[in-house]
Specification:
This protein is of the alpha+beta class. It has helices at 39-58, 96-114, 116-120, 130-139, 153-158, 177-183, 189-201, and strands at 10-17, 26-32, 64-70, 73-79, 84-91, 162-164. It is built from 7 helices and 6 strands; from the N terminus they run ββαβββααααβαα. α1 crosses α7 (189-201).
Length: 208
Amino acid sequence: IIDILVKMKLTAVGIFKYVDENTTPITLGMAMDLNNFGYFQRGPIREGLMFLSRTIVQRTVPSQRQTVKNDEYFCHVYVMSNNLAGIVVADKDYPNTAAFAVIDKILTDVQQKFGTSVVLSQQSDSTIANQMLEDAISLYQDHLQVDKISKIQKDLDDTKVLLHETIHSVLKRGEKLDALVDKSNDLSLASQMFYKQAKKTNSCCTFM
């Protein structure tokens, strides 16, 4: 999904509205820190992270927490019972409990700031939470900052999180990642080619 090692790195945070298992989630905001990637890699990786986030959120049922890992990166997602969803993409050194604490924090903050009804009334992709998420990804690069907002840290230790070794195990029976890539509106033709070439050569920085 992304094969590059960055020590203790928070790469992306996002908020979505889950619709159902057959409908693409609606983006409410996304922030990414791609400074450790080459300039020409950032465009495809940005699109790839959006595709990856939507794909995993769509396959996470309400009230469920999941972690999908691939080499050095972990994608943590939680869909609330009201269908508001948060996702954090971080490297393997970023603590899982801290990642889910960040998700809980951003989901709480966005509802307090804009109102739950306003957030969930969005019917198309929005950037309503972008600035809030930009602040969050900067602040929580230091996972120790999460301790200050993580009163639920102990509860998270006891919360069941479904762990998937690869994104392929999240897909529904019969689904193929290549087919999803070809159909995705998040990926430009250039990004699709980037993915397919990286997959063929097994090179670093493949995002799926």
